[in-house]
């Protein structure tokens, strides 16, 4: 009987001081300002002395400036069967740091509540707005179309369009949270999944960052010389016509 008693003495403090669950939050940690993002929350329960009867979460975001964010009040969800939940948040229009708070809890068969808390730091950045002009040439509407955006050959995101009316145009925008994007010219490609007739395969370029001072000076000099050349040509032409 000495060995079992010794095991109880060793294990008991571990169980009493242990956490009852791990809260796993899955979702982006860098988001574009003003965009809606999805977070999956899983409660990994252990060391309970009774069977779980109900699972639940309460989630909310905090930050210095939550203007444009939704929802700003805590959201909650419960389940008798599943320990996994999904929450949605629209992030503020202003760049900054937002904290996603999650309280996870388990209600045992006896009614006792076991809970824990987890946080996720999320960086809100100014987006690069990618655009696509979509046209439906058909005499009937088209529904549930996914417009996909690629930058330099890499898929960066997509927008789902619920409905495009017959013989009509629609401009689609995707707010991209660019991470470690190099300064310079970049190529955007736009495609419509499963409905290529809506938008021909096309691409365009955009410049990211501020051009160097040398390039700005060179451009201004070239512009000045061009203006002087045109002015000189027009002056000379006017004199000859007299």
What does this molecule look like?
The protein has 242 residues and is an alpha+beta fold. It is 18% helix and 51% strand. The protein folds into three domains: 15-125, Immunoglobulin-like (Sandwich); 128-208, Immunoglobulin-like (Sandwich); 213-242. The chain is built from two helices and 14 strands. The strands form four sheets. It has a five-stranded mixed β-sheet, with no helix packed on it. The protein has a four-stranded antiparallel β-sheet with strand order 11-10-13-14, with no helix packed on it. A hairpin with a 4-residue loop joins strand 7 and strand 8 (113-125). The chain starts with a helix and ends with a helix. Mean pLDDT is 83; it is low at 1-17.
Distance between the termini: 123 Å
Whole-number total of structural domains = 3
Supply Rg.
29 Å
How are strands sequenced across the largest beta sheet? 2-8-7-4-5
pLDDT averaged residue by residue:
83
The beta-strand count equals 14
Helical segment count = 2
Helicity range:
10-25%
Name the structural class. Answer: alpha+beta
- CATH class group of the largest domain: Mainly Beta
């Amino acid at each position: 009987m000495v060995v079992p008693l010794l095991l109880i003495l060793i294990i008991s403090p571990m169980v009493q001081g242990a956490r009852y669950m791990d809260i796993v939050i899955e979702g982006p940690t860098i988001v574009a300002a003003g965009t809606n993002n999805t977070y999956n929350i899983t409660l990994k329960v252990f060391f309970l002395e009774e069977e779980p009867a109900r699972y639940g979460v309460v989630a909310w975001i905090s930050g210095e400036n939550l203007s444009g964010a939704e929802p700003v009040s805590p959201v909650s969800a419960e389940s008798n069967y599943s320990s996994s939940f999904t929450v949605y948040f629209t992030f503020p229009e202003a760049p900054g740091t937002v904290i996603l708070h999650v309280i996870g809890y388990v209600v045992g068969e006896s009614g006792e509540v076991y809970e824990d808390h987890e946080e996720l730091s999320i960086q809100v950045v100014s987006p690069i707005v990618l655009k696509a002009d979509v046209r439906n040439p058909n005499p009937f509407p088209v529904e549930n179309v996914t417009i996909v955006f690629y930058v330099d050959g890499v898929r960066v995101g997509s927008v789902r369009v619920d409905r495009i009316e017959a013989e009509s145009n629609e401009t689609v925008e995707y707010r991209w949270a660019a991470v470690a994007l190099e300064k310079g010219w970049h190529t955007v490609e736009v495609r419509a999944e499963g409905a290529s007739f809506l938008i021909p395969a096309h691409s365009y370029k955009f410049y990211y960052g501020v051009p160097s001072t040398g390039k700005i000076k060179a451009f201004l000099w070239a512009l000045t010389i061009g203006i002087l050349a045109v002015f000189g040509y027009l002056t000379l032409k006017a004199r000859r016509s007299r």
